[in-house]
Amino acid sequence: MSIVDTPVPVAPAAPARATARLLRSELRLVFGRVRNLVLLAGLAAVPLLIGTVLFVTQSTPVAGQGPPFLDRVTGNGVFLVFAALVSCLPFLLPLCVAIVSGDAIAGEASTGTLRYLLVVPVPRTRLLLAKAVAALAFAGAAVVAIAVVGLAAGAAYFGVGDVVLLSGDTIPLAAGMLRTLGVVGYVIASLTGLVAVGLFLSTLTEVPVAAMASTVVVAIVSGVLDALPQLSAIHPGLLTHHWLDFGEFLRLEVDASTLLAGLAVQGAWVAIFGALAWSRFTTADVSS
Amino acid sequence: MAPTGTVRVPSDVVLSLVSGTLGHSGPMDTTRSLSPRVRWAVPAVAAGAVAAAFLVPAAVGAVASDDLPAVTADELVDRVANAEKVPVSGTVVYTARLGLPDVTVSELQGAGPLDLLGGSTTMRVWSDGEDASRAALLGDVSEYSVVRSGPEAWTYSSADDEAVHYVVDPADLERYEALADEAAEPSVEGDVPTPSEAADLALAQARIYTDITTTDPVEVAGRSAYQVELRPQTDGTLVDRIRVAVDAETSVVLRTQVWSVQDTEDPALEVGFTDVSFDAPDPSVFDFSPPAGAEVREVEVPLPEPGTMEKPGSEALGEDAGFAVSGTGWETVVEVSDVDVEEILGATAEGRLPEGSTGSSGADDLLEEFTDAEEGELPGIPELDTQALYDQLTTPVDGGRLLTSALLSVLVTDDGRVLAGAVPPATLEELAG
């Protein structure tokens, strides 16, 4: 966690140190929790599971069926990363984000520790930011875990080689790795909107489970709305609509405007729900 | 961890203000000066700013540029017809509101030509302005590509990892070289439309039976464009009007919109650039070779006989057995007789089993062996139950099955005739007798 040791340059001595300490303790809180580590391990097991299943069934009639990229995995282990990400995006990754971000404020409130936390001479705004960064760091760790385990398992089971793009063109493995890095970065960035939503919901309640559940519901409802063609007018603004745009990294020419459109939508959700969370958290009377 | 010491007093003041007024918190926090009402105004402002950021560019983009020199409609049609071919690349959005039953399968099967039956589809296109072009139909994490380069063409579908290689029949190759004209490029099953192809079709009809006018210049894909409007003079057709936007500088067609008489608000068919560049694309774009491990099919396409190169006119093919044209202009109905629909569907359904019936490459190869003979003639819709699709798209009527859409009606009679035209279904049933 090198981010913890980075000094905050502008802030005066005491608040800077306090903020760094706060961030470090938030990260320790999130990553030190057994529940969260089990979650991380579970997510990392997804590519391992998919890889094992594909390895065992690769010469049977059911090989080559399933979600996107699955049929490519046996030819090139790199695709296990994409197949695992596609499998985790609709539910498991939102769940993971929801558990951490939904717990951020409501969890402290329910155990009665929020009151003591607020005694620390750090503004609530900064406390909220530290919570957000910690939740996002966990979401990022989950995506990276899926990617790393996926790549390792894919390489071990099927080997890696030149990457065939969606357009049918073949690019060298090194370029393919670079694009994989882009995919991982984009998927992490795609989760920022949900982190903001989860954080806001977490400021509304003292029951962490309620915040977690409603965050998952937001992600799922967004996915359901995205599947209704009658609502195509609002689709581009939906939280989950651009999640699968990471496929852009696997096209012949990566079109930055497509990716930026997806990131802009996430930015919009972060702006609105971040502001809502801030308003709520800085005006709320914390009594427990 | 140590402070850098570069903190200037003003920012210090600001910071203490921020921490003091905005954020300093806790039970001992008594210096809050922002009222809760002001704090709650922040999300509203954020929402407003977000809305503005997303909506304003769209509104600005819609403003027409009217500083173009005026041209007449006829001049404009001429310009399009005689435009010098230039390299074009960009993003094309195709939207169909044809009123067909929803058969979108891209979520399950990946992007493919069937997506074009309804809804909105995004494509990337590249053209070198001569005989090489590429179009990619984009789906969520899938893609369907059509790559043309001179006498050969490839289609590739990422969903089933299948490549089809179309080449001009070797017997015709010499003649192809002599023609060296894009009119002679091999026809590809499941081709994807471009704005200019759609416009060509309309403009071919333009001079007769049609009122041609120009509208105010428009802006398409950030370029100033002239726009020509075509209105059929008859009301016996499903087409209400067609608008073609033509780039003012290069005379490339940037957008084609077709309205149906059923809905004069939203175009039933719209295909246009949302992003366009006239720089020559990298030649490697047109250089396709199928990926290792992909299933490759070879198809030889015979060149059409000289003389039938033009679009079938009513006289040219009138006497041809099994092929008849009635009506003129926009009311033209094409009738093909002695079509065994059942056989076509049956063969297709058998030949290309839906995905899932075989998964192993061994079984697939075996299937290929048995169905190879018809392969070339089959519709290029891979791995879909064609019979089910046919049943879904058509409705039973007296003496046959009818496909109705906003712009086209097709009647398949029980005695093996197929009638099609941009006319109301009643016209077809009347003709069929």
UniProtKB/TrEMBL annotation, chain A:
GO cellular component: plasma membrane
GO molecular function, one term: ABC-type transporter activity
Superkingdom, natural source: Bacteria
Pfam families given in the database record: ABC2_membrane_2
Transmembrane segments: 37-57, 77-100, 133-160, 180-202, 209-228, 259-278
Keywords: Membrane, Transmembrane, Transmembrane helix
Name of this chain's protein: ABC transporter permease subunit
Source species: Isoptericola sediminis
High-level lineage: Bacteria, Bacillati, Actinomycetota, Actinomycetes, Micrococcales
